[in-house]
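Late entry, written up from scratch paper. The run itself happened at the end of the previous shift, but nothing got recorded in the book at the time, so transcribing now.
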Amino acid sequence: METKRRSFLKAGALGALVLAAGGGIYRAVHTPRPRRFVLDGEARAALGAIVPAMLDGALPTEPAERKAAIDSTIAGVHTAISHLPLPVQKEVQDLFGLLTLAPARRLLTGVSNGWEQADPKEVSAFLQDWRLHRFALLRTAYGALHDLSLGAWYAQPASWAAIGYPGPMKELS
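Output as recorded:
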């Protein structure tokens, strides 16, 4: 029995229609829910390298105080992200996914070793590169890292004295 061209085309069109309908039904039944942002170990290590580079000159110089300030800033970044809308949290999670994936980290940031061994000059150089990059996506990623880091730092009462902010008025607190 010989298959005619017209029969072959009809069968192909019918098969494509059935697959498209099946895919539509599957998506309608299995809608994925956006997940909340989770600051895992490698993303925390990336922030541990990025925050000191962003706050260069503002952090305490004594090692124990410096570590405490960086840790509290990282916690503040996590808190800030967790209060963002879920779609924005997903975008930030994707950004940290790129920063923690070794090939992407090497290609996009130039940080060859893991974040825990990252040279501060290397981190500062990649941040400066992203700040002025020709691709708007990397400039936006820099802006997100910048705003999250500085926002978390200056939200802490311990950092207010350095900028001359006396804190909220007593009548409002």
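The radius of gyration is 24 Å.
(Scratch paper discarded after transcription.)
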